[in-house]
Amino acid sequence: MSSETTRTARPPVARRLVFGLVATMLLAGCGSADDAPAAKPRGESATNRGQQLIRIQFSRPGDAKGESYGVEMDVIARGADQSRTKLELLVAGRVDESILFIRDGNRALLHQAEAETPYTLMEAADEHPEDLPWESSPLEIDSDLFLRVCPSPDAAGTRTILGREAVGYACTWKGANEGMDQPAKIWLDKATRMLLEYGAMKATKFVVNPEIDEKTLSTKPPPGADVHVVKATGKRPPPPD
What pTM did the predictor assign? Predict the structure, then answer.
């Protein structure tokens, strides 16, 4: 029988750096978050509610010898605050690890079946931007996030990707960034600002207004699940250097 546990401190985290996305989180603690007290949710703007729901699937090939992960990713998103991202890490073409990340407003739910505690509920996801999959949100070129993904961007023209008008930006990296890819260009969907191509990571499918149900964007853990609850602190992290 499990009992609810909540913590204000962040759980221990270990990451495999895969094109900048959090690939794994090793979590300690357990509990049931069915009735966990949540921070007051941040209201979503009418603009966000009015944005199109889209679905993008991505693929990145792994090393032929199985020395690096291949990636398959499925993103359903509406604006910056609502998204569902399923990530599969592949070794020799087989799924080695599967991760699900759902965000609705400022609550976020992470599921990793291989973790000691499979579910993590973040009451204030904005307090942990480094743990959010940036590929699931629109990228504005003047944002801190975009500048981390593509430093010193320069306009690189337009092209068509999956029938969508894409805008490109050339990235200027300074020095080595061990463990991470450093793509020369990034391509975004002009209408939605969502990622279409970043180095070897390429969109393979783009669907406008996909069918979803009430569970698709739900951050409520399954009944009886062991959940690590990351409490809201009311403190926002400082901007990156």
Answer: 0.77
